[in-house]
Amino acid sequence: MTPLSEMGFLSSFLLIFVSAAFTDNILMARFLGMCSCLGVSKKVDTSLGLGVAVMFVTATTAALNYLVYTYLLVPLRLEYLRLIVFIVVIAAFTQLVEMIIERVSEKLYNSLGIFLPLITVNCAILGISLFMLNKPYSFLQAFAFGLGGGFGWFLAIALIGGIREKINEAALPKGLAGPGITLVVIGIMALAFVGFSGMIKI
Amino acid sequence: MASTYGKILKDGLLVENPIFRQVLGICSALAVTNLVVNTLFMGFGVTFATALTAFTVSLLRNYIPVRIRMIVQVVIIACYVMMIDILIKAVAPDIHRFIGPYVGLIITNCIIMGRAEAFASQNKPLPALVDGFANGLGYTAVLVAIAIVREIMGFGTVLGYVLPARDLWWHQWTIMVMPPGAFFMLAILTWIARARLVKEEAK
Fold first, then answer.
1. How many domains does chain B have?
2. ipTM confidence score
């Protein structure tokens, strides 16, 4: 396969997006964002709302963190500060977005804004920013990685939300209901996602 | 006083175990448990960070303005996690290569934030330190349990030592070291723990 750096712009963008969303799904293969996923995925509506919010924040913070890391931390040889810097960028960004949404549109705030504080401590967001550093991405590729990762999470939580709505009506052993059965569902879905692995190698 | 510390320790380890009871911090619980060695390093990191964050938050609890306490807590956690990250990198570079990003993700591990918020922000520094330590240990214990099963079934080894039965009759289940295995293991453990809980409450 042609290396990423020699590929055309669009194909590398698409490739990274698909691989981040499917072959390396952040929830199914990297286990990130589980806490909020188990907590919020009881209904499809809320799952979709949180999913969209996460997708938006991951894509933008991945791009922001890429810029901060490449143009601020690396030249100053302060790479070891990345953890603190990344989390502050994410926290500040979500706070800012929440404030803007609150002023601009009440409807959007009610559907999206309430999820934003939850997102600060969602490990998927910080995870995307950290995994991004493992690969020599360019700025736009980093953005594609963030967007794809966020989309993968959105897809996973939407599917889980749908399944959980049905499963809540089933008669389950008391100990298994709730987190237990959700983990089984995610496990079976993860099996399906394992099928994607190896399709794309970056 | 000794008995209070004992109770805090027992609560964190068993009664209020962060993974079963509070369903917190399972992201990293799954990712690093395919090998026992990785799990031990991760558990050490989480215990260290939880205990010291709780201690620091409790020391500063009267000085942190309520409105911005979340971000202050996150920065405190990030400082300790950075230390752990550098320490593991120096001591075990090979392991760091694999669990590196997950070490960074200790920052967003809900256990640390949860304990800082629920216990440390209302208690004196020493009990907070013990509470953080106990919760970290409770977390590590569950992780190691999962890791032992996964490593034995997946590789036929414990801490890298090949078990004698492996080549005789055990066919390694590759699925156990892949993501789905982690989900199923945790599901089974939660089931057992919750079933016991339901029984106790019924009494």
1. 1
2. 0.76
